[in-house]
Every structure is written in C-alpha cells, then in structure tokens.
User: Fold these one by one.
Assistant:
Number 1:
Amino acid sequence: MTRPLGKLQLQLLFGLASPSMLMIVGDKVSGSLVTRGLLAPKFPESPDAWQRITPDGMRALADAYEAGLLDQFMKKFPREDAKA
C-alpha cells in the first residue's frame, strides 16, 4: 500500500495543478513525486528539471480535494477577518 502524501507533496501538486505549469528546477519533494509517478520530466534528457503533473498526479490531487486535504492551501473569500 502506498503511503499518504505529505503536506509538502500536496502543496507542490496543488501548485502544479495545471498541466501547462512546469517546475523549472526539481527538489527533494518533487523527486519523491516523480518516484510515485505523480510528476514527470517534460524533457527526459533533463530528469531533474522541467517537471509537470501527470494524469495520476491529477487523480491524487482530486482525491485529496475530495478528502478536504487541500483546504489548508486555499484562501477564503471573502476574508473572514475583513471588516464589514
């Protein structure tokens, strides 16, 4: 069984939610997502750069959204602390 995604992994997937978004330089967190097949390099000759979300990454993000795990990354509108 696969371990659940951590907060930093979810946050990175959330930031790359559009297939047109690319992460220019990968890091340890993105590397763990590449290993899981949730991110992939756009250019195979540069596996540590230009990473993008995969269809499996989109599915994992959708599952996390349905489970309420992405609320922590979304800003509420209107702000609750705004004066009326």
Number 2:
Amino acid sequence: EVLDSVVDALNELTHDCYLLPRVHPRMKDFPDEFIPWQKALSKFRGRTVVDWFQQCTTSSLIAACAKRRGVVVSMFSTTLIEAATLKAPAISVMFPEYEKKYYRPECAFDLPVTALGCARKATSQQELHELLDAALTGQLDLELQQESHFKTDGKNAERCALKILSLM
C-alpha cells in the first residue's frame, strides 16, 4: 500500500528519477504481499524501475541518497534512522489509515526521527507528493537537525556514559 502511494506521488512529479524499492525483510513471511508489490511497481512511469532485492544492500542505497542522489522513503523503520545518521533526505509515509491498520493504539506515537525533525512525515498523498518534490530538488532541509541529533564523531559512548552519570 505504501509503495503504491509512493509510485502515485512519483508519477505526479516532473523529475526524471529512478525507483529502487526494497522489501522489508519480514515480507518473505507474507508471499501474498508480492502481488500488490509487483502491481504497484508496474504502475511506475519513471524511466526505469530497478528492483534490487538482494543485489544491493540497504546501507549502500542509503549512502547514495546521502550524497544527495535520492531520498529514503519508509513507514516507521530503522531505515529512516540509518538515513538520518548518514545525513540522507528521509520521508516517513504514515497516513492515518496505515497507522490504524498497522499499529496498535498504545503504539501511536511519532517515530523519534520524525519528532526530532531528522525525517519528514507524510500524512497524506498530497503531503507525500510535496515532500518528494522538496527532497528531489534539495529543499527538504534536514541536515542541521540530523547533525544535531545523529552525531558521527566517535564520541557517542562517552556522551551516553556522561548522561548516565548525570542521572545518578
């Protein structure tokens, strides 16, 4: 369903782009999901659909996005955290109907990466379209928040230890 929404939004854009979809690792447990997955992919009107599956790691795709060559799109995933860490544009697709269908009410909270402003949250098809357009034109503006909250200076363990000590 999310891939279908992403394909629809990409088809509305005028940007020439590639779609590199990755299934969630647990999708192998739900083989019936490949039917709507392939149907959504078949609708993509971009120049090329590259269906990588196991040919390329998620980390290498995210790294390519971090070089401002793309955008990472997911629902509620560690992939968005990886994107924020690598300073890649990132969008969480969390329409209210998806939230109701896939998450229990007691888990209804924003993903910290979106709450911290390190990824944008699309809550409608129109918002997804606008965020994808902004990402593909370099206007998503997440870098300052990502740098602030996802430091990669090698001192994370030290910061954690100091925080724990301050709480004692």
Number 3:
Amino acid sequence: MSDEVRINGVQHSWASTILKIDGKPWHGIKAIGYSHKRTRTKSYGMGRAHAPRGRTSGKYEVEPLTITMETATARLLRDEMAQKAGTSSYGDAVFQVVLQYTEGNSTITDELVDCAFESEGAKPEESPDPLYEEVTFDFMRLIRNGKTLHAPPTGGGR
C-alpha cells in the first residue's frame, strides 16, 4: 500500500493536532518536538572484502520531548503534576502524553510513554506576543499508531 492521492484534499496540519497530557486536552501549545532512534552497530570479522558480517539489534534511545506553551498553561500543568505527585514537586509525577493528528477518517496517534519533567525555561521579552515557556520532558518510549521502533519486548511487556 502506498500513500493515497489527494486532489483538493485536506492534509494534516497544526489545526489537526490534539495534545493530551495525563488524559486531558491542552490548548495553550505553540510547538512540540520529539524524536527517537535505534542505534545499531555493525560487526566485522576476517575476510578479503572486510565487509560487515552482521549488525546488532540496536539500542533504543529517545531525545527529550519539548513543548513550547503559554506561561499560564505551564503554570497550570505544574500545579496538576504536583497534585498528581502528592507533593510540592511537580518533577515527581510520571504521566502519558498523547499527540493525535486527525483529518477526516485519518488519525495518526503518537504515545509518549512514562513522561516526567526534565527542565524548563522562559525568555520573556518586550513584544505584543503572549509569553511562552519551553518545558522539556524525559520519556521512555514512543508508540506510533500502535507500532514501535524498538525491538519487541520479551515476556509480554510493552
């Protein structure tokens, strides 16, 4: 199956985006960034060609999730996560982030599993624009439409 032909069709865009943090939708979001990779190493041995003999199954790694959000949204998120953690530290909460892009009957779902606050920062400046903060989260793995980049777990894990 290849991608479908779209003639005068609507593509997924920022307007198609729904972000849920800990199961609740959030709207004061300006930008979202995340990535993951599977680093593999080739193995070599003797032989005239000195070509690789194989490769490892790889090490799965994620880069931090960064979300640029309105300052008031960041404050509310910190309050909710501190309440979830049951302490004054919002950094102790672990939660799920789900990002969906929906247009017509096409939905793309990215699940960022076991997220936790990592860092945050702001650069308020004179401008007519609203104030934003960049919040960074650590997460354990990314599931895209039910599929993973990492090798499947053994023993029934996710």
Number 4:
Amino acid sequence: MTAPMYVVAEHHEQVDFLILADSFMDAWSAKGIQPFAARVVAFLQTLGMAVAIVYQPGACWQSGDYLRMLEYYAPRYPRAKAVMTISMG
C-alpha cells in the first residue's frame, strides 16, 4: 500500500515550480520557527514564482514513489516549468 500524498504548500493553480519531497515537513529551520518547506515557498514567492510542494511520508526512489507523485500531480499543474525532487533519507 502506498502512503498518501499531500500538497503542503501552494501559491495557486498555475504553479511554475513543483517540488516532490519525502520528509520535507519534518525538516525545521535552524531557528526552529517554521517548517523548512514554508521558508522555501516564501523565498520562491519573493522571486515571483508560484510553487507547490508535494509531500509523501517515507517516499523512496526504488519503490517508484517519486514517479507516482509526478504522474499524479504534473497534470494538475500543466504550466509547471520545473520539477525538483528532495530526498532527505
């Protein structure tokens, strides 16, 4: 059974930059004030980029989790110009 996927940050429907991640929500900033994901989104928005971060707990390259995330979310954000994956474990 595949773990559920979540969109943890989204600017609006017309996303420029799609980020696929595993334990992104568990990473806190050095100051411990807000999740790292929120800081990344805030920074990209200052550059004028609309962003969505898709998070799946325990996502693994070998089991195809990132490919499933891409297949599921890419059609929902057809204007995305870039996709980045973050694997923290």
